[in-house]
Amino acid sequence: MKTHRFFDKENNISFVVKTFPELTTGELYEILRSRAEVFVREQGIRCIDPDGTDYESLHVFCIEDGRVQAYLRAYRIDGETVKIGRVLTLCHGQGLGTALMKFAMRVLPEKTGCRRIAMDAQKQAVPFYERLGFKVTSGEYLEEGIVHVDMAYEEGETQ
């Protein structure tokens, strides 16, 4: 698969999409480092992060000053649906999360042929994802001690 790059002029940052084999060891290290910083240190989640899903995922991220600043992974769960997870930004409130998600919502259908993007969203992040066009598709449940809901974005729905 050809690496897909996108330059976001508003945030002055480049996004990259790579399969697991395309990641350099440095990129993989920085992805895992940023995931640990956000999910373990910042949010207090205690889980084994490398869960095997990374092997089959597309990795969408940006690196600035040698650090992964924003990241998500996406993997197919059925013929028309890709699931995203491990969504993070190191800097909050600067529009980087919105830029990351808009890029992913555009490039994932191109790369995978999916018509639907699903996720397990932390309840506190629901308004953020709703502004992007995602809709809640489940009741609340606990995942790693944090309240979550399922959400989905269907291609062609208005944002």
What does this protein structure show overall?
By secondary structure, this protein is of the alpha+beta class. It has a single domain (4-117), classed as Gcn5-related N-acetyltransferase (GNAT) (Aminopeptidase, 3-Layer(aba) Sandwich). 26% of the residues lie in helices and 37% in strands. It contains three helices and nine strands, in the order E-E-H-E-E-E-H-E-H-E-E-E. Strands 1, 2, 3, 4, 5, 6, 7, 8 and 9 form a nine-stranded mixed β-sheet that branches. It is globular and about 40 Å long.
Write the layout of secondary structure elements.
Layout: E1 4-8, E2 13-19, H1 25-42, E3 58-64, E4 67-76, E5 81-89, H2 96-112, E6 116-122, H3 126-131, E7 135-136, E8 141-143, E9 146-154
Parallel strand pairs: 5-6
Antiparallel strand pairs: 1-2, 2-3, 3-4, 4-5, 6-9, 7-9, 8-9
